[in-house]
Write a structure and sequence with these properties.
Length: 577
RNA sequence: GGACCUGUGGUGCAGCUCGGAGUGCACGCCGGCCUGUCAAGCCGGAGGUCGCGGGUUCAAAUCCCGUCAGGUCCGCCA
């Protein structure tokens, strides 16, 4: 039907008879003898010179056959890849008429996302969306290639899985054949891939859809895609190496940026220096511990377990009203207050200005200036509280105030390792898994599991990029004794464990290789590579933040017949309370 | 479950503080003119339940209450 793509015609084609197909973009009419039509396909735009308008309108689908000709002198268009040429002597065939679209197909036009989603098929015609989806496909392809060359085998796992009541809320699928019973859609292929290791697959990977019925966010959809891997007879370092290699392959091919290695931070370092387990390393602004400096302070607000601060550079000047805003924000996050000290020049060198300045001892002032190497116009922000709060609040302020440092790479990856095995205790006094119940403890710490469980580290790790968590993984428990102990401290009885994960434990009893794995969130990865801060921009058909699809109107009620077939009876709202 | 922001012809906005006739801008659409445009240009035109419901008022896009939808965040996401 066509001989060429619109965007690929160039001066090399001059004189050729070509047929191109696509959508009518802008038209420029000059009376009945001359009109220009921009014909668009996914490769770009070519200008077609026609006599009269042929009744063409925006988004008509046409086939144009004509001769590639050089444009007359002075009429070339540098903004167009095909701007040196045009198609003349055109024969136009309308393949499909089109209603006037609700918005123009142009990257220049801003349209409310709701409207874009209702007409997603039109939105997808836009250059930006085409680019994102094609880049996404390229990333998938590169990842497949990278893992296959590292000895991994792609295996598909079931979407109709069995309920494992732990962690995220599951999407439930009623069984027609067994009334009253349900499948669930997998939160991730976690257990399936461990079974593949028991099954001797050795190294598995899959570009897997995962489903979690939790509230949506800019970086979270109900369904999302993970590059999921698992490998046998490996250490944590092996897994980091596999993934690092894949990241290097993908980033270099997609962005041209060459990464040599990915720095490794311990969880403790990350929390101490950046106040978060997903640090944005595109800028420094590290958190400094000031507890020692203020251990004998007269300042009442600083009499706390943990005192920490960050230095805000002079490039981010903080007016009094901005400071007031920051104080309010810190309080919203649970701080009792936020102290600030502004460095100013004086006859005696740098001095600190602050409502607290007069209470600040001379030694404290000196130590503070020294600790931060502070210079005029810089501001120190200080929080004094329990350590988890000082870290968390300063970490948030750091993210709010920090700007990517032009000296640093635009993509700053980091591994965060040695996460705590447990997050804390639930209301029944049982420990809560940091990652999941199959995560291998750090065996150096395992003896502390009863005396000081919260200080037990795990063999788990996150990959972080520019302050986003891209993925996480762990070495899994393959030993009975350790798994039993973990279930026990999590408050899962052996009966409960049997009921929930019996098939997995049974599998492990038949010879489980040591194994571990990782899952990389592809939506987030691709959004970051595309320079988007919302994953909906790299998903063909996403849902709104209330889980609605404006195009299909899903979710919708189903018919009484369907309900009956599934043995389901809707209950009225008031019956729920 | 909670907080904040947004909702005005097909699209994007202004108007809202301080109530006075659906007032305005840009794009698109329809018609006319136009033989080298390319975000074409010029002339004319059509197009509105100001998200929805209630209240205050002589009078509501504007003030108040409620509600729906969208966005961002908190909770949640082993």
């Amino acid at each position: 039907m066509r001989s060429d793509y619109c965007g690929q015609i160039s001066s090399h084609d001059i004189g050729r008879q070509v047929s191109v197909c696509g959508w009518v973009g802008r038209r420029r009419e000059h009376g009945e003898h001359l009109a220009f039509i921009d014909l668009r396909d996914h490769t770009g735009i070519i200008q077609c010179v026609v006599q009269g308008t042929h009744g063409l309108h925006s988004e008509y689908v046409v086939k144009i056959t004509g001769t590639v000709s050089p444009r007359p002198e002075g009429t070339s268009n540098k903004d167009l890849a095909t701007g040196e040429v045009e198609i003349t002597n055109c024969e136009v065939e309308v393949l499909s008429k089109a209603d006037s679209p609700p918005f123009s197909i142009s990257d220049r036009i801003e349209v409310e996302e709701n409207v874009r989603l209702r007409y997603r098929y039109l939105d997808l015609r836009r250059n930006k969306m085409q680019h994102h989806l094609r880049m996404r496909a390229k990333v998938n392809s590169l990842l497949r290639h990278s893992f296959e060359s590292q000895g991994f085998t792609e295996v598909e796992t079931p979407l109709l899985w069995t309920p494992t009541p732990e962690g995220a809320r599951e999407f439930v699928v009623p069984s027609r054949m067994k009334p009253g019973s349900f499948y669930v859609l997998p939160q991730s292929p976690q257990i399936a891939k461990q079974l593949l290791m028991v099954g001797g697959l050795d190294r598995y990977y899959q570009i897997a859809r995962c489903l979690r019925d939790e509230d949506l966010r800019a970086d979270r959809q109900f369904e999302f895609t993970q590059l999921d891997i698992e490998a046998s007879f490996v250490t944590q370092q092996d897994i980091l190496d596999f993934v690092t290699q894949a990241v290097i392959d993908v980033v270099s091919e997609i962005t041209g940026i060459s990464i040599e290695s990915i720095p490794i931070l311990t969880w403790e370092q990350s929390m101490e220096l950046y106040g978060t387990d997903k640090p944005d390393l595109r800028f420094d602004m590290q958190i400094v511990d000031l507890t020692a400096i203020f251990k004998d302070t007269q300042i009442k607000a600083f009499q706390a377990n943990s005192i920490k601060g960050i230095k805000v550079p002079s490039s981010c000047p903080l007016s009094r009203s901005k400071l007031d805003n920051l104080v309010a924000k810190a309080k919203e996050m649970g701080a009792k207050g936020l102290a600030w000290f502004k460095a100013v020049d004086s006859e005696d060198g740098v001095v600190l200005e602050s409502p607290l300045a007069k209470h600040l001892g001379e030694l404290e002032s000196k130590a503070l200036i020294e600790a931060f190497g502070i210079e005029p116009l810089e501001t120190i922000l200080i929080v004094a509280d329990e350590i988890s709060l000082t870290r968390n609040i300063l970490g948030n302020l750091r993210n709010e105030l920090g700007e990517p440092d032009p000296e640093k790479p635009s993509l700053c990856f980091a591994w965060v390792v040695d996460f705590p095995l447990f997050e804390g205790f639930d209301e029944d006094g049982n420990l809560i898994s940091g990652h999941h119940p199959f995560t291998m403890p750090n065996l150096e710490d395992f003896h502390l599991i009863d005396s000081d469980p919260l200080s037990v580290r795990s063999q788990s790790y996150d990959l972080v990029l520019n302050g986003w968590e891209l993925g996480s993984g762990s070495i899994r428990i393959h030993r009975d004794d350790i798994q039993s102990k973990i279930f026990s401290v999590l408050g899962i009885s052996s009966e409960q464990a049997q009921e929930r994960f019996g098939f997995l434990l049974s599998a492990f009893s038949f010879g489980a290789p040591p194994h571990g794995g990782f899952a990389l969130g592809l939506d987030r990865t691709i959004a970051l590579l595309a320079g988007e801060d919302n994953i909906r921009e790299v998903i063909a058909f996403p849902k709104t933040s209330s889980g609605f699809d404006p195009m299909t109107q899903a979710p919708k009620p189903i018919s009484p017949q369907q309900l009956k077939l599934l043995s389901l009876v809707p209950i009225k709202d008031e019956a729920l309370d």
